[in-house]
Amino acid sequence: MDPQLSLSERLIERRLLSSDELDRVLKLQQEQQAPLSRLVVELGFLSEEDLLPVLRDHFALPLMSLKDIPPTPLAIELPAGIGDFFKLARMVPVKIDGRELLVATTDPLDLSRLHALELAVGLTVKPVLAREKEIAARIEALYSSAYSADGKVLGRSITDSDGAITYYDAAGRITGRTSGDTMTIYGPNGRVLGTITTARPVSK
Questions:
Q1: Which domain holds residue 150?
Q2: What is the pTM of this model?
Q3: Which of 85, 114, 134, 151 has the fewest CB atoms within 10 Å, i.e. is most exposed?
């Protein structure tokens, strides 16, 4: 396997994508600024089942089935509203190994959001690949509620007249703010840890 091949070249090499299909994807990619890996699936040129092994080999990342790992809360403090960030980024924490946080994602090139998560949790983030439906199900299971398993309030959110949403933890400290296509994450001292937008890096 040639390590110098781009992802698009690798898909063509494996005869999973034709030159005409690639031209359509690249044209749409310029319009939407979306990753190639997502567009080939959304356009119906490739199934996620066929794409994931290619991504695994191309990025040299593990491919994980989240069905094999019970959706139990991790022993880390996450900002209120973090579920919205995970849904936007299409990634979810899976487990902690020492000072590393294993994070399942569909797009390992989304470095800005992976880095923002590192800043928010104070751990080194290690991405792994997983199916999008399994990631979405894990986010829904663990981060869709404002309450913990024992009924304690984890945080609250307030929506202003402009539609912006501000998130607070149980102590009333701001932890995040979503406005339009941008989410800002705050640390315990109120310092901005990172700002994430829906604009994603373009992979070729």
A1: 66-197
A2: 0.70
A3: 151
